[in-house]
UniProtKB/TrEMBL annotation:
The keyword Zinc does not apply. SUPFAM superfamilies: PLP-dependent transferases (SSF53383). This is Glutamate-1-semialdehyde 2,1-aminomutase. Gene3D superfamilies: Aspartate Aminotransferase, domain 1 (3.90.1150.10), Type I PLP-dependent aspartate aminotransferase-like (Major domain) (3.40.640.10).
């Protein structure tokens, strides 16, 4: 009473002053019935909504939160920098520290530059590749998400054919279609951009096959095109050296954002020596891109991930979640498929073309205190411990029970 307005009251007010109530991917209208839109607090892997309900969070801000909401070391680093200055006439010294840290940590990186959003980073990679090769064509996998500007937006509203004139589509993990696309771009191939694994919305996830990754590297070596790894979503959860490092395939350019600063706004492009000159020549900048607070947060976040081996922790917790969900699926005789790396899980029910089971499962689990997503990959964090996974599995059991009609 007298405190925060309810979720419903905020949504009603927003309808009048915000297009569609909310732009973009965080609009709760895209989620099953009952999901909150507004949040008032977050701590570790827990969220509280405007109506005072609490959840164990398996979306992690859709990626950014990786060591826990309000992580003490990250927030202390951000606060220390904020007390000295953030958006100034040039960067703070922490820029150099962060660039050195990325060059030391990311295997292919000889240099780094920074921006705000993942879209800035993927777009800069494409621009740098075109500048460095003097060519125009970029191969993009059908259905892959690379950002929210005309060359890559999943919506065609406001997009012209010219915005995409030099893109050629291929199918992820399909070397024949990759070769055909490269042939179509012959002589004018600037780059191939790929996500770290196939995580297209609303379908099972797919890891890159080693053959596909190696074939792609060989294609880029043979043609001089840049291999761009869009590591915006997977970066810092699979391997701190870069998400294709376990495959032994190194990109020429990588785009990072999301988890790089545990929720502080920052993106990065890393690249090989060969593209340093092109990265020097392109004009890539923004009013806030040298902001020092997110950079201080990034140094602390990456430091913490290195210190505790964050990917190993998330893998262990992801395996516990996957095994628990599999056991429930068997117990309730409701077959599911779980795909992708365990630290970025996705569970889709068999025979669920309209998402009726998935939506009911998630809506029920939500009421029992676990925030899952039925069709977008989820995210684990270093703040998820065994107790939180087990608690979430109890909520998941309520979800399975509802789908089983018990
Ligand atoms: N690439 C990938 C693979 C992404 O997942 C995203 C964000 N979902 C982006 C690019 C764009 O990042 P941002 O939303 O920060 O612009």
């Amino acid at each position: 009473p007298g405190g925060t307005p309810s979720d419903a009251a905020l949504r009603a007010r927003a309808q009048a002053v915000i297009p569609g109530g909310l732009w973009g991917h965080l609009n709760a209208a895209r989620l099953p019935e009952g999901y909150p839109q507004y949040f008032t607090a977050a701590e570790g892997c827990r969220l509280r909504d405007a109506d005072g309900r609490e959840y164990i969070d398996f979306m992690c801000s859709w990626g950014p939160m990786v060591v826990g909401h309000r992580h003490p070391a990250v927030e202390a680093a951000a606060r220390r920098q904020a007390e000295q200055g953030d958006c100034m006439n040039g960067p703070a010294p922490v820029l150099v520290v962060l660039a050195e840290l990325l060059v030391d940590t990311v295997a292919h990186a000889d240099w780094a530059l920074f921006a705000k959003n993942g879209t800035d980073a993927t777009t800069a990679c494409v621009t740098i590749a075109r500048a460095g090769t003097g060519r125009r064509k970029v191969l993009v996998a059908r259905g892959s998400y690379h950002g929210a500007v005309p060359w890559c937006s999943p919506s065609l509203a406001g997009v012209t054919a010219e915005d995409r004139a030099h893109l050629v589509a291929f199918d992820y993990n399909d070397t024949n279609s990759l070769d055909a696309a490269a042939e179509a771009a012959k002589g004018d191939l600037a780059a191939v951009i790929v996500t770290a694994f196939r995580h297209d919305f609303g379908r099972h996830q797919e890891m890159p096959t080693p053959e596909f990754a190696r074939h792609l590297r060989a294609l880029c070596d043979a043609t001089g095109a840049a291999l761009i790894l869009d590591d915006v979503r997977a970066g810092f959860r699979i391997d701190l050296a870069g998400s294709w490092e376990p495959l032994g395939v190194r990109p020429d350019l990588s785009a990072f954002s999301k988890a790089i600063a545990n929720g502080h706004p920052l993106a990065a492009v890393t690249g090989r020596e060969r593209f340093r000159q092109a990265a020097t020549e392109v004009y890539t900048t923004g009013s806030f891109w040298c902001g020092a607070v997110p950079m201080a947060a990034a140094v602390a976040t990456i430091g913490e991930l290195l210190r505790i081996d964050g990917p190993a922790h998330m893998r262990a917790m992801g395996e516990r979640l996957r095994a628990g969900l599999d056991a429930l699926s068997r117990r309730y005789r409701l077959p599911v498929r779980q795909t992708g790396p365990v630290q970025m899980p996705l569970m889709i029910f068999d025979d669920d073309p309209e998402w009726a089971k998935g939506d009911l499962f998630c809506a029920t689990a939500l009421r029992h205190g676990a925030y899952f997503h039925p069709r977008h990959n989820m995210f684990l964090s270093c703040a998820h411990g065994e107790a939180e996974i087990d608690r979430a599995l109890e909520a998941a059991e309520a979800g399975f029970r509802a789908v089983a009609g018990r």
